[in-house]
């Protein structure tokens, strides 16, 4: 009896230690990304490339990462090296970041592609640890993931302060520092042999999901909404400064946007219970429309700064609702396949088209034209998601009558 109590106490203590390590890992990963990722485009533009050129670099890198994303899962499952993969995925982009300063287009395409190939596996592997650790510590995944949003916001703000003293071409130093801290923490995590498992093969699960018309409509709506997010992730810094915003205010805007994800993640579970997946996604799509529409009508630094409070309501709610929607409609046997397909469309295809389209529009028409296009795309996505919501209500009504 006493031995069982000691074992349970030891397990609880270990679960808390792993939880704290993961919260630190997400914080440092967020700091690294917040410091560097929003400024990749400005780094390239400062070297004489157009937004259209940089959009192609990002689109090409994202395309290659989508193609190779399933390979990471196969490698992890085959060689049982989850922790090693996570450490490598953090170290390689950190060591390559300096080479963004090379003014050769082909080399920049190669550097961005290599970084993206490794970075694409960071979140899936870290999330596999986080979900397991949250259950063991009797808490929620959101209590770990919010540290990533907090780190991203603080990193974006700190980058603005950093750039008031140092050249933009020196941003690779804090990126290297925080990624190395992340890698050190990742190296102390317990071994984990598998990211996910499924009783249905990827090809069979993919074929089943592609025959589901409602799921295809859902993916289409997600694509139309999320391709607009590149206007923030890839081009906000450039568009904000084109509108007259200062470097210091850029950091403040990035902090404001990321911090709003924290309360969104804390209340998302309540909103989903009350509103359901489909209506929550519609609410978030409406927030996206409002967010882009305001910046289209009033593309001034003050407005573009203030409107970032909608980031949590738009991206935060949409992403959490969409992930849980996929989990609810695919079932346990196709969970991995469904989430992989969702991410390939949501982040992959949406990122490719968004980077190329928004880069071209920003280059040729300025921020107003880019934000008008985003407003229209989000509105079309909202219409499709409304159809998905209506079909879901009809299906639930039909089941209740049986």
Automatic annotation (TrEMBL):
What PROSITE patterns does this protein map onto? MFS
Q: What InterPro entries does the annotation carry? A: MFS_assoc_dom, MFS_dom, MFS_trans_sf
Question: In this protein, which residues make up the domain named Major facilitator superfamily (MFS) profile?
Answer: 200-402
What membrane topology does the annotation report for this chain?
Multi-pass membrane protein
Q: What transmembrane ranges does the database entry give? A: 25-44, 56-76, 83-100, 106-125, 146-164, 170-189, 215-240, 246-272, 281-298, 310-329, 341-362, 368-388
Protein origin, superkingdom: Bacteria
Q: Where does the record say this protein resides?
A: Cell inner membrane
Give the matching Pfam families.
MFS_1_like
Key words, A-Z: Cell inner membrane, Cell membrane, Membrane, Transmembrane, Transmembrane helix, Transport
Its recorded name reads: MFS transporter
- Native species of this protein? Paenibacillus barcinonensis
């Amino acid at each position: 009896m006493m031995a069982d109590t000691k074992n349970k106490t030891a397990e609880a203590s270990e679960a808390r230690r792993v939880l704290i390590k993961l919260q630190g890992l997400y914080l440092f990963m967020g700091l690294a990304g917040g410091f560097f990722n929003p400024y990749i485009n400005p780094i390239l533009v400062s070297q004489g490339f157009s937004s259209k050129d940089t959009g192609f670099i990002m689109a090409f890198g994202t395309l290659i990462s989508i193609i190779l994303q399933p390979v990471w899962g196969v490698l992890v499952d085959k060689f049982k090296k989850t922790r090693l993969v996570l450490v490598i995925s953090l170290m390689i982009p950190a060591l390559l970041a300096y080479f963004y300063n090379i003014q050769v287009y082909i080399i920049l395409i190669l550097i961005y592609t290599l970084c993206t190939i490794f970075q694409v596996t960071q979140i899936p592997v870290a999330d596999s640890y986080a979900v397991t650790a949250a259950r063991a510590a009797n808490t929620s995944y959101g209590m770990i993931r919010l540290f990533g949003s907090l780190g991203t916001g603080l990193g974006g703000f700190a980058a603005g302060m950093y750039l008031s003293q140092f050249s933009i071409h020196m941003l690779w130093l804090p990126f290297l520092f925080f990624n190395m801290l992340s890698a050190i923490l990742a190296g102390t995590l317990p071994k984990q042999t598998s990211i996910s498992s499924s009783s249905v093969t990827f090809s069979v699960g993919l074929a089943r999901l592609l025959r589901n018309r409602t799921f295809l409509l859902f993916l289409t709506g997600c694509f139309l909404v999320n391709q607009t997010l590149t206007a923030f992730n890839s081009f906000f810094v450039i568009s904000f400064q084109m509108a007259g915003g200062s470097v210091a205010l850029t950091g403040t805007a990035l902090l404001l946007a990321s911090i709003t994800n924290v309360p969104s993640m804390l209340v998302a579970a309540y909103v989903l219970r009350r509103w359901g997946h489909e209506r929550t996604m519609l609410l978030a799509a409406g927030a996206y429309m409002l967010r882009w529409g305001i910046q289209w009508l009033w593309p001034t630094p003050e407005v573009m700064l203030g409107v970032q409070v909608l980031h949590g309501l738009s991206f935060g709610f949409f992403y959490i609702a969409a992930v849980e929607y996929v989990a609810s409609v695919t079932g346990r046997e196709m969970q991995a396949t469904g989430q992989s397909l969702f991410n390939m469309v949501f982040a992959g295809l949406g990122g490719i088209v968004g980077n190329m389209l928004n880069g071209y529009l920003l280059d040729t028409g300025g921020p107003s034209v880019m934000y008008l296009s985003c407003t229209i795309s989000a509105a079309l996505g909202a219409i499709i998601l409304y159809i998905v919501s209506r079909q879901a209500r009809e299906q639930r009504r039909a089941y209740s009558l049986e």
